[in-house]
Design a protein that fits this description.
- The protein has 28 helices and 26 strands.
- By secondary structure, the chain is an alpha/beta fold.
- Among the domains are: about 20-110, BRCT domain (Rossmann fold, 3-Layer(aba) Sandwich); about 125-210, BRCT domain (Rossmann fold, 3-Layer(aba) Sandwich), CATH 3.40.50.10190; about 225-335, BRCT domain (Rossmann fold), CATH 3.40.50.10190; about 350-445, BRCT domain (Rossmann fold, 3-Layer(aba) Sandwich), CATH 3.40.50; about 535-600, no CATH class; about 740-860, Rossmann fold (3-Layer(aba) Sandwich).
- Helix 21 (about 685-690) links the parallel strand 21 and strand 22.
- The longest helix is centred in the middle third of the chain and has 26 residues, at about 535-560.
- The radius of gyration is 34 Å and the shape is globular.
Length: about 850
């Protein structure tokens, strides 16, 4: 051979030689992009190594071998774990651009992270000033986008000032398929931190410059359907013909707090098993943990585990319906909800929604309720916030006139995501692009993982579970506390220089514990709203009450003792002697009217100079509020001002007593009284008081008394709670009217049995039954009695009491211990020739609140 081939070769390694990748593709992440397969082929052709996933296991197990994950979405199980391992998660376009440039492109510009909302925008520029181009380039890069030097097929957007721009003209001639936008579009997106529709900002036909703008029309929102909160507990999912392969080789644990009936739980479990999944009994062995609330040791363990995905029932049903895995933290209502709402939200915070329609409106209504606030369809002057999709409506005009906060839905979503009410002064929450209905971007906010770690996912030893004794009687919910979540409280130190006075002292049980802010469940409310008669709790409460009664007298005694001459030889000897006598240890202090009046005059401590002046010339007395001649008795069910603040409560009660307003704990034997509450509440006090048909006022009545030192007109403070009426299914005014007719004998025809361990305490329900004229008996395994037929003696007072004479009721919960009693109760009833009715507490509470005997089949327990 005349010619010998040179013994040389190209030493340049393939472009993707160091890339070891996995692909998140069907069936885990279905993708219809025809270029997806070709991108993967190009990657392997140029030296990359594909790491195969186990087809029977949807999880990535070999992170140490992987450098890149190719996908079009972050919606896969191991996304967070991949980031923790510093693995690049990129879109297929990263492959194309790297091949075109003959170098590996920066993976940051190709992330599918929805937070970088320009991640799929490739921008070309028209004839813009250089300063504007630089500003937009910086903006587009910061939010995951990229740009090209000249208009080409790679560009997705062309930004120009008008249709006469030469690049716009060139795009028209070349039939370029991208979108032509004004620079205003980038500004609006940046203000909202969301990508909105380009349509109103189209260079050729810009809606934002039209003279007659009108209301912006709602546009399609592809995300919102998958973000909705479902109500799966109402009915079980279908099991026939459904195979949820999304559960393949997944161990799923259903938490105890889901509140599922047996039929629904069995159906869900069957779907998991049919789809190749398994049921886990412990958190440590589970891949998916399904619970309702963000609390409890199981939730914390699951949330802290990198191998367990935490979601709620709504998310679980989404998986079943779509047969596709999604990340529950990407949708606010797919993650367990805070059981007691978010701090500083509560029933006192009312939110109305305007200009959102369809699924977007439904989603926001659910979000309001999950946050712990009160949703109201009808906006009134007392409404706290108006959440609106644009600022062109009559509701918005009324809100401006009434000084109601006007915000877009991003404020609500961020408040929920961060577990903290966001400031309405943030311009992002009050920005309304002129031709955009913000309903198109509802449902895109994810749960903040930082907020979860800060408020919920704390190590068990770092938090203390709040016990029932930490709450005072008659409390329905926790109002915004003076102690924010995470603040540490130390026990009272008498020697401390900054020891709080009697009006600010906090009751503390131990040193250095976390005091989480929370609201109480309905069962806890019933348990707390009781007299605690005969218990150690009662003794403690009584002692504390006496201490607070004496606190003001003791302080006054110390003040008088410092005067020249001391207490016995001061300027008001008789009054001082009274104070000294009343302040003796062991004596129950009783304040005379004269001393009370004097204390009112001396609310602010006098300086020494004022004391001298008062001896030289008569001191001008403050004008006192004239006391009412009679005693106005008031039963208070829930007053947020007093929650966890017994010293303030006692001080307020003293002030109210001076006005003639006496706060009573139980129904008076005779005479009229007021019922005071911030909303309709299923508490012992509220329901018992309702049986007497009292005047019902809102807690603003007490606010007025304390602020103005006068008793206002009752008619100025009616309790109006349309939401509560709708939820419970009755009208408060009608119940009061019926109560007048019933005269406390609604349940006279009934003798009602109740399990000993009923949630909410037997004593509370017994009080409700007896307040309505019924007879209540405890039923347990030792109960032995012969029940006579429940015949009324005499005539039925009115139609409200009409009831079948042969029915015998047992009010029971669903615990195994209670269920075991059902057969025995049924046997006892049948021996007495009566029909056994085993019912939920809802039956009793609804009947008592409506003040009429009515029936709903859902109230009856079905015997196993």
């Amino acid at each position: 051979m005349d010619c010998i081939m040179a013994d040389t070769y190209d030493s340049t390694p393939p472009l993707f030689a160091d890339v070891r990748f996995v692909v998140i593709s069907p069936p885990q992440m279905p993708d219809d992009d025809p270029g997806f397969t070709s991108a993967i082929t190009a990657l392997t052709d140029e030296g990359a190594t594909r790491i195969a996933l186990d087809p029977t296991n949807p999880r990535i197990t070999n992170f140490k071998e992987i450098t890149h994950i190719i996908t079009k979405s972050v919606d896969f199980q191991d996304y967070d774990v991949a980031l923790d391992h510093f693995i690049h998660v990129v879109k297929p376009s990263w492959i194309h651009d790297s091949s075109r440039k003959h170098r590996l492109a920066n993976p940051r510009g190709y992330t599918p992270d929805p937070a970088l909302f320009f991640h799929d925008v490739v921008l070309a520029f028209g004839d813009l000033p250089p300063g504007d181009i630089e500003a937009i380039q910086g903006m587009i890069l910061a939010k995951g986008g990229s740009f090209v030097e000249h208009l080409s097929k790679m560009a997705t957007h062309l930004v120009a000032l008008d249709e006469n721009d030469r690049y716009v003209q060139s795009a028209e001639k070349k039939d370029w398929q991208g979108k032509r936008v004004l620079p205003h579009w980038f500004d609006a997106c940046l203000r909202l931190n969301r990508r909105i529709s380009e349509e109103p900002y189209d260079v050729i036909n810009a809606e934002i410059f039209r003279m007659n703008k009108g209301k912006p029309k709602p546009r399609n929102n592809a995300e919102i359907e998958t973000a909705l909160m479902l109500t799966p507990s109402l009915s079980p999912p279908p099991t026939q013909g459904v195979k949820a392969t999304v559960f393949n080789n997944q161990k799923v644990m259903l938490a105890k707090d889901l509140g599922l009936n047996d039929q629904t739980r069995d159906a869900i479990e069957q779907l998991i098993l049919n789809g190749g999944g398994n049921l886990a009994t412990t958190v440590s062995e589970s891949d998916m943990f399904i619970c309702q609330y963000r609390e409890g040791p199981d939730y914390v363990e699951a949330g802290l585990s990198p191998n367990t995905t935490v979601g709620n029932l709504s998310w679980l049903y989404n998986l079943i319906g779509r047969n596709k895995w999604t990340n529950p933290t990407l949708k606010l209502l797919h993650y367990p909800v805070p059981k007691h709402g978010i701090p500083d939200f509560g029933p006192g915070t009312t939110i109305s929604i305007s200009n959102y329609t369809g699924h977007a409106r439904t989603y926001l209504e659910h979000l309001v309720k999950a946050s712990g606030a009160t949703f109201t369809k009808t906006m009134v002057e007392k409404t706290t916030y108006l959440v609106t999709a644009h600022d062109r409506s009559e509701k918005v005009d009324a809100a401006k006139e009434w000084n109601i906060h006007i915000v877009n839905h991003l404020w609500l979503e961020d408040s929920y995501a961060q577990n903290k009410v966001q400031s309405v002064s943030n311009a992002r929450y009050t920005h309304f692009p002129s031709r955009t209905n913000l309903g198109e971007i509802v449902g895109q906010t994810p749960i903040s993982k930082d907020a979860l770690e800060k408020y919920f996912l704390k190590r068990p030893q770092a938090i203390r579970e709040v016990s029932m004794e930490d709450y005072d009687d008659a409390t329905d919910f926790v109002a915004p506390s003076t102690l924010k979540p995470g603040r540490r409280v130390t026990s009272h130190n008498p020697s401390s220089s900054n020891t709080p006075g009697p009006q600010t002292a906090k009751r503390v049980r131990s040193e250095n514990f976390m005091t989480p802010q929370r609201r109480l469940t309905e069962q806890e409310i019933m348990a707390l709203d009781s007299s605690f008669t005969g218990s150690s709790r009662a003794s403690k409460t009584k002692a504390m009450s006496k201490l607070h009664d004496a606190a003001a007298d003791i302080a006054l005694y110390e003040k008088e003792r410092k005067r020249v001459g001391g207490v016995t030889h001061g300027r008001d000897r008789a009054r001082s002697n009274s104070v000294e006598s009343d302040a003796r240890p062991g004596k129950n202090p009783k304040k005379s009217p004269k001393r009370k009046a004097k204390e009112e005059e001396e609310e602010s401590e006098e300086t020494e100079e004022e004391a001298k002046t008062s001896t030289a010339q008569p001191r001008k007395k403050k004008v006192k509020t004239e006391k009412t001649t009679g005693k106005l008795k008031v039963i208070v069910s829930i007053y947020p001002r007093w929650h966890q603040n017994p010293s303030l409560e006692q001080a307020d009660k003293n002030k109210l007593r001076n006005l003639g307003v006496h706060i009573i704990e139980d129904l008076p034997a005779t005479g009229s009284f007021l019922l005071c509450a911030p909303k309709i509440a299923r508490t012992r006090k509220f329901i018992c008081a309702l049986s007497r048909g009292p005047e019902i006022v809102e807690t603003t009545f007490l606010d007025h008394c304390l602020e103005h030192k006068e008793i206002p007109d009752i008619e100025d403070h009616p309790l109006v709670d349309e939401e509560g009426e709708e939820n419970i299914g009755f009208r408060l005014a009608e119940s009061v009217e019926r109560a007048h007719e019933n005269k406390g004998k609604l349940l006279k025809a009934f003798q009602i049995f109740m399990t000993e361990n009923i949630a909410g305490k037997f004593a509370n329900y017994k009080d409700i039954i007896e307040a309505n004229g019924g007879r209540c008996h405890m039923f347990n395994a030792k109960t032995k009695m012969t029940v006579p037929k429940n015949k009324l003696q005499g005539e039925v007072p009115n139609a409200n009491q009409a009831t079948p004479d042969d029915e015998l009721f047992l009010v029971s919960g669903m615990s195994a211990q209670e269920k075991n009693l059902w057969p025995k109760f049924e046997e006892m009833a049948r021996k007495a020739e009566m029909v056994p009715k085993i019912v939920k507490t809802d039956w009793l509470l609804n009947v008592a609140m409506a003040q009429k005997i009515h029936w709903d089949p859902s109230w009856e327990h079905v015997s196993p």
